């Protein structure tokens, strides 16, 4: 298992981490890798990293889960972030061949920040 950190600049943003994940794989790695973010207000997904789509995705998450009005906000004012990440999940299991993620043509590994700006720790288990 290895790990790396990702710094985010906005409250709700998506960061392409595919290259960072591959850097953590050994050159002869084959099988699967689990990519896991160890935070309750961030998520890992696999999808296309086209910038307009990522912007649309951020807008859709913001519309899907309202920012205010949640009971948990009485504690630390970030219930929306927890709910967004809960819907997406903390990790993905991804095929690996010869030290590279075996993704489809348009697929990338993405970190979804729901409570930034923050520094996030991502673990890669292969």
Write the layout of secondary structure elements.
Elements: E1 2-7, E2 13-16, H1 18-23, E3 31-37, E4 42-47, H2 51-64, H3 73-76, H4 79-88, E5 91-97, E6 100-101, E7 108-113, E8 119-125
Antiparallel strand pairs: 1-8, 2-7, 3-5, 3-8, 4-7, 5-6
* Oligomerization: single chain
What is the count of structural domains? 1
Provide the CATH top-level class. Mainly Beta
Summing up helix and strand content along with how strands pair, one would put the structural category as: alpha+beta
Strand order of the largest sheet: 1-8-3-5-6
Number of strands: 8
- What letter string, H or E per element, gives the SSE order? EEHEEHHHEEEE
The main sheet comes to: 5 strands, antiparallel
Instruction: Report the total helices.
Output: 4
Q: Can you tell me the CATH superfamily?
A: YjbQ-like
Strand content: 35-45%
CATH topology: Jelly Rolls
Question: How many whole angstroms does the radius of gyration measure?
Answer: 15 Å
Show unreliable segments.
Answer: none
What is the residue-averaged pLDDT? 97
- Helical percent range? 25-40%
Ends distance? 7 Å
Overall 3D shape? elongated
CATH architecture: Sandwich
Task: Describe this protein with a few key phrases.
126 residues, 3-stranded antiparallel sheet, Jelly Rolls, 5-stranded antiparallel sheet, alpha+beta
Describe it.
This protein is α+β, with helices and mostly antiparallel strands. It has a single domain, classed as YjbQ-like (Jelly Rolls, Sandwich), CATH 2.60.120. It has 4 helices and 8 strands. The strands form 2 sheets. The protein has a 5-stranded antiparallel β-sheet. The radius of gyration is 15 Å and the shape is elongated.
């Amino acid at each position: 298992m290895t790990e790396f950190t990702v710094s985010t600049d906005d409250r709700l943003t998506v960061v392409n981490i595919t290259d960072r994940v591959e850097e953590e794989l050994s050159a002869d790695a084959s099988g699967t890798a689990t990519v896991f973010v160890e935070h309750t207000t961030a998520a890992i997904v696999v999808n296309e990293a086209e910038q307009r789509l990522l912007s649309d995705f951020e807008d859709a998450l913001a519309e899907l889960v309202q920012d205010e009005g949640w009971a948990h906000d009485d504690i630390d004012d970030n219930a929306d972030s927890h709910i967004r990440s809960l819907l997406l999940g903390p990790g993905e299991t991804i095929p690996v061949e010869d030290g590279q993620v075996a993704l489809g043509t348009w697929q990338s590994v993405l970190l979804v920040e729901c409570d930034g700006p923050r520094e996030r720790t991502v673990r890669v288990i292969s």
